[in-house]
Write a structure and sequence with these properties.
This protein is α/β, with parallel strands linked by helices. The protein contains six helices and eight strands. Strands 1-4-3-2 form a four-stranded mixed beta sheet, with helices on both faces. Strands 5-8 form a two-stranded antiparallel ribbon. It has a two-stranded parallel ribbon with strand order 6-7. The radius of gyration is 22 Å and the shape is elongated. The relative contact order is 0.14.
Length: 228
C-alpha cells in the first residue's frame, strides 16, 4: 500500500496533473478503502509545492491563471455535487510566489459517479475517490465511462490483473503502474471518446498512416494447370 500510494500520488499530482495520462479517479476495492484514503490524503497534504526549479519542490504551478480558475471551479463543482472535500488545494499561499498560478494537491472523496466532475478531465492536481466492493464492480464502473484513455490496477493478484487487462475498455492499461505511457514504438491507444481517427499515433499505427500499401498476388507453378 505505501508504494501504491506513492505511485498513485505521482500519477495524479506529477506535472501538476497536466498530462493526459494523469490519474484523475482512484477506485478502492473492498478493505483497501480506509487505508488508501488516509495514505493518499497524507501524500497530498505533504507534497511540496512551489517554483519547480527550487530544490526540494515536488510540484510546480499550473500553466496559467485561467487554468487555475478552471480547476478551482471544477473542485467547487465536485463539492457541490456531493463529494467530500477531503484535501482542499485552492487558494494556496506559496512563499515568494504570491502571484503564481498554484493549486495544491486536492482530494475529492466519494465523488458521485454520474456527476459532471466525474466525467470531466480536470487536467490539474485533483484526485477523486470512489469505492466498490469487488474487482468486477470496478471494471463495470470504468467501462461505464465515456472516455477510455488509461486505466491502471494495483494488485498482488495475478488473476485480478489478468481479468483487468482483458475486460477494461481503455486503450492504455497499467498493472502496478501509475502512468501507462508506452515507449515510442508502441501505439498510444486511447479508446471511446479519448480517441478520434482510424489509427493511433506512434508505433506501427503511425507507420501505417504514412504508408501506401500494395498487394501483389503471384503464382510460380512448376507446370501450368487448371486442375485443383
Amino acid at each position: 500500500m505505501p508504494m501504491a500510494t506513492r505511485i498513485a500520488a505521482d500519477s495524479a499530482f506529477g506535472c501538476a496533473g497536466q498530462r493526459c495520462l494523469a490519474a484523475s479517479i482512484a477506485v478502492t476495492v473492498g478493505e483497501a478503502r480506509d487505508i488508501f484514503t488516509e495514505s493518499i490524503a497524507d501524500a497530498a497534504i505533504s507534497r511540496v509545492v512551489g517554483y519547480g526549479l527550487d530544490e526540494g519542490v515536488q510540484m510546480g504551478p499550473v500553466i496559467t491563471h485561467q487554468s487555475r480558475q478552471r480547476i478551482e471551479g471544477l473542485i467547487a463543482k465536485g463539492a457541490g455535487e456531493g463529494a467530500n472535500l477531503l484535501v482542499d488545494g485552492r487558494n494556496p499561499t506559496i512563499p515568494s510566489y504570491a502571484k503564481g498560478s498554484f493549486v495544491r494537491p486536492t482530494i475529492l472523496q466519494d465523488l458521485p459517479v454520474g456527476g459532471e466532475t466525474a466525467r470531466t478531465e480536470i487536467f490539474g492536481p485533483v484526485l477523486s475517490l470512489m469505492h466498490v466492493n469487488t474487482i468486477e464492480d470496478a471494471i463495470k464502473l470504468i467501462n461505464s465511462a465515456e472516455h477510455g484513455n488509461m486505466a491502471c490496477v494495483f494488485t498482488s493478484s495475478g488473476a485480478s490483473a489478468r481479468k483487468f487487462r482483458y475486460a477494461v475498455h481503455a486503450g492504455n492499461i497499467g498493472i502496478n503502474i501509475g502512468v501507462a505511457a508506452p515507449m515510442a514504438f508502441f501505439p498510444f491507444s486511447g479508446w471511446k471518446e479519448s480517441f478520434f481517427g482510424t489509427l493511433h499515433g506512434q508505433g506501427k499505427h503511425a507507420v501505417e498512416f504514412f504508408t501506401q500499401t500494395k498487394v501483389v498476388i503471384e503464382r510460380w507453378p512448376g507446370e501450368w494447370t487448371r486442375k485443383f
